[in-house]
Amino acid sequence: MTEWDMSDTAHILDDAEFADGDFVLVSADGVRFRTASYQLLWASHALRDAAAASSANERSITFTDAEIESADILRAFLRFITSGVLPVSRKKMGNPTNGLDRLPRLVRFLEKYQCHTAQRFAMVCVREGLRRGVCSPLCAFVTGATVGDDVTVTAALGADPQTWGASSAAESKALVMSAFKVNPFGDEAKASLEEGDEDAHVLDPSSMPFIAWSQTPGEYIWALSRAWKKARGPDGKGEGDLLWYFEELLRAAKDTSILALTTRQSTRPDSIPSVIGLSTA
Predict the structure, then answer these.
(1) Which ranges in 113-205 belong to alpha helices (H)?
(2) d(CA 215, CA 261)
(3) How many CB atoms lie within 10 A of CB 175?
(4) How confident is the model at residue 185 (pLDDT cuts 50, 70, 90)?
(5) Nearest by Cα to 118 from 28, 181, 46
(6) 278-280 and 31-35 strand pairing
(7) What is the pTM of this model?
(8) How far apart are CA 203 and CA 262, in angstroms?
């Protein structure tokens, strides 16, 4: 990962919203945020430790992970710890992908930097948003899966299927059709792809939008795919059985993952570098 040179201020832009405070955060894409140190250091154990190693004149941290430490995520983080606001829009209620662009990445940031209280509160807010219809089941499922919060994941799958949303509303067909610039299937098949499946639920793995697939850990996608097939099979009862099948399959997947992790850990070196990708100045 590329680290920004703090001496080269030509590449650093100041955020208009967070412009005051005694602590500086610089995002991986070069945006500078100023905030009150007491709010920041209360929220994060890891950032508190990093701040202790920074300069006494102006404490600052430069982030390097472009995926979860970009300006949009730092802005969402600061809004959440100062105002309790999550990046889910009430104006987009009913859109299955509402919040998917930032919310899962925000909770990953909270987890990475040991914002334990903030992360727990964020997941409570997600479940409450799910109950009130502000947060879609798809967004709640992906967000919960991102940090292994199975309470939120099962709450999402247990929601009324009528609130899940249709795949046709979740993703432009342009992404799918871009894979078929030279269409090998003929005009009839091409028309079918362009129209999409109007009745497909976004929690059907075969119809789930790419933004959800790309952020969901493998064991959750695997369990949902198998559970969906089983629930929709001749012996299943549709969505009514989905949650039960999913929980059993996810448990099996996690048991397998734990076994594999234990095997890997037994052969790994004693010295492991820090996973926190930041530099202090």
Answers:
(1) 116-132, 137-146, 150-157, 173-177, 186-195
(2) 21
(3) 11
(4) low
(5) 46
(6) unpaired
(7) 0.79
(8) 31
